[in-house]
Amino acid sequence: MSESRLVTVVIDAAGGDNAPNEVLAGVTLALAEDPSVHIILTGPADVVVPYAGASERVEAHPTTQVIEMDEHPANSVRTKKDSSIVVGCQLVKEGKADAFFSAGSTGACMAAATLIMGRIKAVQRPAIATVMPTAGPPTIMLDVGANADCKPEHLLQFAFMGAAYASVVLGVVGPRVALLNIGEEPTKGSMLAQESHQLMVARVPNFIGNIEGRDVLAGVTDVIVTDGFTGNVALKLLEGTSKILLAQVRDAITGSPVAKTAAAVLRPALNRLKERLDPDTYGGAPLLGVDGVCIIGHGSSEARAVSNAIRVAAQAGRGGLTDQIAQAIAEN
Q1: In angstroms, how far is CA 221 from the centroid of its own chain?
Q2: Torsion (CA) 316, 318, 320, 321 in degrees, nearest 10
Q3: Adjacent-strand bridge partners of 209
Q4: Taking Cα atoms as reference points, which of 319, 318, 240, 223 lies closest to residue 279?
Q5: What are the residue ranges spanned by the domains of the chain?
Q6: Radius of gyration (Cα) for the chain, nearest Å?
Q7: CA-CA distances (angstroms) from residue 76 to 84, 110, 174, 318?
Q8: What kind of fold does domain 124-288 have according to CATH?
Q9: What is the pLDDT of residue 276?
Q10: DSSP 222-291
Q11: Which of 33, 168, 244, 291 could anchor a disulfide with 319, C-beta 3.0 to 4.6 Å?
Q12: Bridge partner list, 15
């Protein structure tokens, strides 16, 4: 399929609610879709060694520890040096891999990436970004949970990092950047929003100003910048709304014989809508600002989500995402 250069992605085979079966199934899908991707699997030897032995493009890197979802993120990273997450980040740090993916503990992934990969020079706060489906092309929103309290300088850097991601991974030329606020006017919102707006007007190329919550899915911008508290609330609200609406549509089209007949006609269009709204379509959320590519998946990730996350990780690695972010931060 792709004739791009070989890229190596480390996969945490022990991470997530459905590990290792769904993780390995996702790796199988990714290998079939991209002949130029090489996989390193971290996790228990009895899981990763047999799988790697059946593929020339998979390497096993057995580990003896697993960081559980309920463990303290930073403490577990410091004490479980041979965990699948810590070792995966270490392989990226050592240059043995281009990217890392895990559907395990989000906190542990953030801690490991920050402590082991380190931050890109001059980056003050790494941020979690997510791809949002819109009425048009998808939009990047960040931060969605890494930083509950932010300063204007942090949001300014988020703008540069989000624009780099939109360019490298989504192929957007000259990404438009907007600030999430409670009004479009520059003087609206908190002091954080007002001061961030001033900085972005002066320093962010293609900054289009403030947008409100109703515009998040409207497709009016390529990057939406906000603090991690607001971004996480907005993301969870949209995910919950999407699930409820899809469930109500399903109930409506199966509630009577007439509705079921109509549903047969509408099913292809409804399936396309579900595909657009499904988080699995985009695979995982990148932690931007660390000195390496780190993609964090949902704990409930199944094979399709894992495969898509590997695709995103490979694109970011091939496109030099880390270097692009470093350059943008250094120049601004």
Answers
A1: 18
A2: -10
A3: 178
A4: 240
A5: 1-118+289-319, 124-288
A6: 20
A7: 12, 12, 40, 31
A8: Isopropylmalate Dehydrogenase (3.40.718)
A9: 59
A10: SEEE--HHHHHHHHHHHHHHHHHHHHHHHHHHTSSHHHHHHHHHHHHHHHHHHHHH-GGGT--EEEETBS
A11: 168
A12: none
**Residue 124's Cα: distance from chain center in Å?**
19
Q: Are 225 and 159 in contact (CB under 8 A)?
A: yes
Q: pLDDT higher for 242 or 66?
A: 66
Strands 139-142 and 127-132: antiparallel
pLDDT, tens digit, 9 for 90 and up, residues 211-260? 999 999 899 999 999 999 999 999 888 878 877 877 777 777 777 777 77
Burial code of 81-120, b = ≥16 C-beta within 10 A, e = fewer? eebbbbbbbbbbbeeebbbbbbbbbbbbbbbbbbbbbebb
CA distances from 164 to 38, 199, 310, 311, 327 (A): 24, 18, 19, 17, 10
Measured in residues, the chain has a length of 332
Which 8-state DSSP code applies to residue 183? S
Nearest-CA neighbor of 222 among 202, 243, 207, 201?
207
* Cα–Cα dist 90/112, whole Å: 9
The answer to whether domain 1-118+289-319 and domain 124-288 are alike in fold is yes
Q: CA 40 → CA 7, 102, 201, 241, distances in Å? A: 11, 12, 43, 37
Encoded tokens for 237: 């609200």
- The reported pTM is 0.89
Has domain 1-118+289-319 been given CATH number 3.40.640.10? no
Amino acid letter for position 6:
L
Residue 1 is predicted with a pLDDT of 38
In single-letter form, the type of residue at position 326 comes to A
Q: Which amino acid type is present at position 209?
A: G
